[in-house]
Each structure stands twice: as C-alpha cells, then as structure tokens.
User: What shape does this take?
Amino acid sequence: MAGQNLLTIFVALTAVAVLIQTGILVAFYLVSSKLSRQAEQVVDVTRNVLGPLQGAVENLKTVTARVAEFSSSTRQRWGRSA
Assistant: This one.
C-alpha cells in the first residue's frame, strides 16, 4: 500500500512538473514573439530614417564632386594668370 501511495505522489509530481515546463515554454514563445514584433518595428523605423539619408548622401557626393571640380578649375585659372 505504501508503494502505491508513493507511486501516486510521484506521478502527481511529474504531472505538475510537466505543467510547469509547459507554462515556461508558452512564456518563452510569448516573449520571443513580442521581441520579434518590436524588432520589426525598429527595422521599419530605421528604414524610414535611413531612406532620406541615402538621398542626402548622394546629394552630398554630387555637391562635393562639383566643388572639387570648381576648385580644380579655379586653381588652374589662377595658376595661368599668375
């Protein structure tokens, strides 16, 4: 009879342990899905910020090239007249 009681207690404790593990796995899933959604939002915000910056970088490259060209031609003109 004592063996039967111990077996019942062991099975009950095992069932409780399995339920706790199930709860932990569900919590991990919920946390990971929340983090995934937040990461997607951050990526979207980053794209919205970097999109216009890429256009500005291209404009700066163009302006820099034109200023360098103007500077070079100005140096050549001043060098010829001096």
Q: What stands out?
A: The chain has one helix and no strands. The CA atoms of residues 10 and 48 lie 57 Å apart. The mean pLDDT is 92.
